[in-house]
Amino acid sequence: MRLTRYFLPVLKETPSEAQIVSHRLMLRAGMIKQSSAGIYSWLPLGFKVLKNIENIVHEEQVRAGHIPLLMPTLQSADLWKESGRYDDYGEEMLRIQDRHGRDMLYGPTNEELITDIFRSHISSYKDLPLTLYHIQWKFRDERRPRFGVMRGREFLMKDGYNFDLTKEDALHAYNRHLVSYLRTYERMGLQAIPMRADGGPIGGDYTHEFLVLAETGESEVFYDSAVTDLSFGDRDIDYDDVDQCQGVLEEFTTKYARTDETHDENLFNEVPEERRKVARGIEVGQIFYFGTKYSEAMGAKVQGPDGKPVAVHMGSHGIGVSRLLGAIIEASHDDKGIIWPEGVTPFHVGIVNLKQGDHEADAACESLCRQIEGLGLEPLYDDRNERAGGKFATMDLIGLPWRITIGPRGLKNGVVELTSRRSGASEELTPEAALAKIASIYAKS
Ligand code: ATP
Ligand code: MG
User: Which of 84, 159, 251, 385 has the smallest number of Cβ neighbours within 10 A?
Assistant: First the structure.
């Protein structure tokens, strides 16, 4: 993509309304534009990252054996009256009437809709286990929308729902989700720590929140620093092997890690003092097992092996897809701008032409762009008639992890410069060697 043909409305000034760094950088890098409180348009650069995050979430869900579908944003209030949550949900629910005066709402979550789909089509235990999920916009009329996409009113969430015959099966689904979430966040370059959380109104003893450590996080967290040494890495998991999932689960959940809601000072004190950490975190996901709460209330039953009807055991599982952009930036930036992890970056390589209009430099940049595209990667070519300093500042702000700088002087010696955004280190290489290095970096991520 040529920058002169792209739409990248970067801001020179730091927007005064933004209180935290991720919000400031998303506005400055031209990724989002607020349309009203807590509601944003996703400009091209922001939209690209959002899609990348969404894709990783999809891939890891499908890998875990979960099935994608798509439910609507607008829901009839009838189902919510059936479950009892129409009255319980309170002011966060946006209630609407259609032209016939029928009560509708913009879904804040989808337990009711999915349970209705399930009970309409599934009647035998033989069709279980089943996990369905979607990635869809939600609306919650938050009292204090703030921090940009971090606490929006309209936000994108992956929400999944498992249906199982027994509690044991449902807990296996729970474990599978825990493992797939760990893998999902790691692919985005994030360390998200599973922490024992409070079931809240959904209830149940089994719930974990995934938190990314960041000073600007809204939750207070207490953990054994040994959890931050764990990483999922590239280990292969067979999701059908219950024991294997439970093994990973134990490894990641037996160390002390809790939010303030479930914090237990006595247990915490058993952790060696030097490893006891109190910090702040951003909640990027949560998983629940809640048994038969919705299936009882809404009659989601199947015929069991003995021919008798049984209410299915369910859980729900959410990832804050749009919030993740903010969380990644909070975890990965410097004073010049964003530093995207390779897994989510909007463009793979930035190309800076030091002398626009110089025949050789222009030709070298264009040829390199084509070769990068040939690798299945996307370059962003800054072909503006601007000083090098301005071009570097833009590249640093928008955070592409790799930059190739091309100018007449280097070309005379047959070299270009490859720079890592994260370390700032540069090396001079032939264009072929730079290309090979880029190819190998992205082959790994
Ligand atoms: P919070 O405690 O932050 O209000 P929640 O626990 O109510 O969130 P869940 O119902 O667990 O949220 O939703 C799943 C995920 O959706 C959360 O882990 C979070 O990442 C994301 N999320 C929730 N509310 C918002 C919001 N207002 N804006 C952006 N993302 C959100
Ligand atoms: Mg939550």
Answer: 385
